[in-house]
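Lab notebook, bench 4. We co-purified these components, and the gel suggests they stay together. Before we commit to crystallization screens, I want a quick structural picture of the whole thing.
Request: model the full complex, all chains together.
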Amino acid sequence: MERQSVPQTTIQRLPAYLRCLLQAQEQRMPVVNSVELAEMCGTNAAQVRKDLSYLGELGTRGIGYDVKALIAHISSVLGITERRRAAVIGYGRFGGALLGYSGFAERGFEIVAVVDADPAKVGTLVQTPSGEIAVSAIDDLERVMQEAGVEIAILATPASVTQGMADRLVAAGVRAILNLAPVRLVVPEGIAVRQVCLSTDLQVLSFHLAQNAQHGPQGADEQE
Amino acid sequence: MERQSVPQTTIQRLPAYLRCLLQAQEQRMPVVNSVELAEMCGTNAAQVRKDLSYLGELGTRGIGYDVKALIAHISSVLGITERRRAAVIGYGRFGGALLGYSGFAERGFEIVAVVDADPAKVGTLVQTPSGEIAVSAIDDLERVMQEAGVEIAILATPASVTQGMADRLVAAGVRAILNLAPVRLVVPEGIAVRQVCLSTDLQVLSFHLAQNAQHGPQGADEQE
DNA sequence: TTCTGTGAACTGATTCACAGCG
DNA sequence: CGCTGTGAATCAGTTCACAGAA
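Here is the predicted assembly.
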């Protein structure tokens, strides 16, 4: 019944708002206004009001935003009122680190499957914050995704095999992919992909170092 | 002697151009034109030409861009003609994964120090793609940063101590920080910070799943 | 009076379309 | 001719400034 045109940039800020609101809740603040919320997450009040206004009329004039209600609303917009089921593809250094990470569970995600190509690893039991799971074989990828009801795949495979994995995941019905390998994925329309590339981020940082070195230490801050 | 107004967005795309150019070089292509380069990195030709034009007149009309020369130029703009020295703060699951990752070395970075608070870990030898290094104690943070000549710090510490670490790093002269902990860092003007938050990315993906579920499987692709 | 919600103005980035170099 | 480099047009996102709800 409502709009669908929430700007891309606003969506990317919603998780930050959510984090700050949870923090406010811990501090027993029943209400926050746009100035406080902006302060907490490092934006400005106009931005906060504009962003939240895309989601509906969520505030009370003269008062501010009800913390509990706003948390519920943003969670709903982000689609994390129910826990989302994710899988880690590639049980290597990064894959292993992800499985042990408790931050996912705290933010609405559960790792329900791990897949690896190495026969030596298949069958291994892995301890995750939300339980113990066994490593599955790559050959069973499609079956495992379907049986575990995986909605999001986290690709932590070697670069060379990553596109192939993505193709199989899409064919198996996975519609959202977080790619940690340093390759650009090509996927059909309608599949959501997010690329995380630490080397890219380091290179951007390096650019700023190069800039500041050149003409006096006054310079660029933050990203975005 | 030249401009300093390369748009933020262009800078963030330079690493991708670099990656594609290295790939072109491997395929023995001496020259690429804007259409080919756009194809390779998933943009459009106008974008490529505009981006590269901010760096100078690097192409040859009627021909395209010399791959070798363009690699050299972009590397120079990104400040990675010399190897940049980075440190990993926090030798936990993620820190460990980073140290074993060979992608950094391939893209102009060298991990020259690891620091951890756990006395049991201090002194441990860690094998990295570019050699063996010993874990240093957090108490020695300032000295280690200075002696190793660290330019970029990668924060992989528990959220609760991350801001404190950032403060000490800045005080120790580090001017660029890649933060993997899910907290917003507050740093003085002139310090470059990049935030990587996997949970945030998952939440954005979840938003897209929620959207598509609502009104028919036609939908959002890619990030940015 | 206090603070939200929102048009209007502005800023920055992308795309278009073409002049002009090799 | 083919392709770059670039002004001009467009589009998206941010900031301003204020009307009006509580």
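Chain B has a mean pLDDT of 94. Worth comparing against the SEC data before the next meeting. Residues 33-35, 45, 49-50, 52-53, 57-65 of chain B lie near DNA strand D (CB under 10 Å from a C1').
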